[in-house]
């Protein structure tokens, strides 16, 4: 399983993903789930993935091949699409086609096992920042001011803090804290989500990745935040009137 979350704010975008794909008593694997495509100053595109690893890896590889194709144009390459909506459409088409092909090649593969979804975020120079959730079928929805964040994977445990804290006016610093605490809550409740974590920030109109950080198991800053949050929740619970 996995958990990825992206926040669209007035000041920019905050992205966070775990890296665990298989979990069991003796079977734990780590794979990157956050990918970047950028031409600094012109466009930046971030993709986060959840679901079947064979589907997501193949889809990402196909997107890269389309970029390198000498005949690429705005209908086939995410680096040539004229808008972020066009980027989301290309990614959706690629994901849906890849999912169908892999499922058809394996007759005993359940449809759910070939399922995958993606979060697409970014900005093209002269355009607005946009954030999309791409479904396995290739269709997508977009983050709004009412719901300025999107999640994929094991999302239910980390949703409450986002609902209570995050608004478009939230600062990039506070948004990073909210995303990390959302991930911390998820990891405490579901062992299929785990370290390392990939955190990224894309500032508005920068058209490039402004900051990237990989958080390893035992990271002192993350551990201190997790401990402080647990203590704050316990204190609030004790003080809560019945």
Can you tag this structure with a few keywords?
12 strands; 5-stranded antiparallel β-sheet; 242 residues; 5 helices; alpha+beta; Glutamine Phosphoribosylpyrophosphate, subunit 1, domain 1; single chain
In short:
This protein is of the alpha+beta class and 242 residues long. The protein has 5 helices and 12 strands.
Could you explain the architecture of this structure?
By secondary structure, this protein is an alpha+beta fold. It has a single domain, classed as Glutamine Phosphoribosylpyrophosphate, subunit 1, domain 1, CATH 3.60.20.10. It has a five-stranded antiparallel sheet, covered by helices on one side. A five-stranded antiparallel sheet has the order 5-6-7-8-9. The protein has a two-stranded antiparallel sheet with strand order 3-4. The protein is globular, with a radius of gyration of 18 Å. The N and C termini lie far apart (37 Å).
Instruction: Please state the overall shape, judged from the principal axes of the Cα atoms.
Output: globular
Order of strands in the sheet with most strands? 10-1-2-11-12
- The secondary-structure class comes to alpha+beta
Mean pLDDT: 93
Largest sheet data: 5 strands, antiparallel
**What is the CATH-assigned architecture?**
4-Layer Sandwich
What fraction strand?
A: 25-35%
Helix content range: 25-40%
Number of helices: 5
Number of domains: 1
Note the run of SSEs as H and E: EEEEEEHHEEEEHHEEH
Which residues form runs of ≥5 with pLDDT under 50? none
CATH superfamily: Aminohydrolase, N-terminal nucleophile (Ntn) domain
Distance between the termini: 37 Å
> How many beta-strand runs?
12
CATH class category label: Alpha Beta
State the oligomer: single chain
Any idea what the radius of gyration is? 18 Å
CATH fold-level name: Glutamine Phosphoribosylpyrophosphate, subunit 1, domain 1
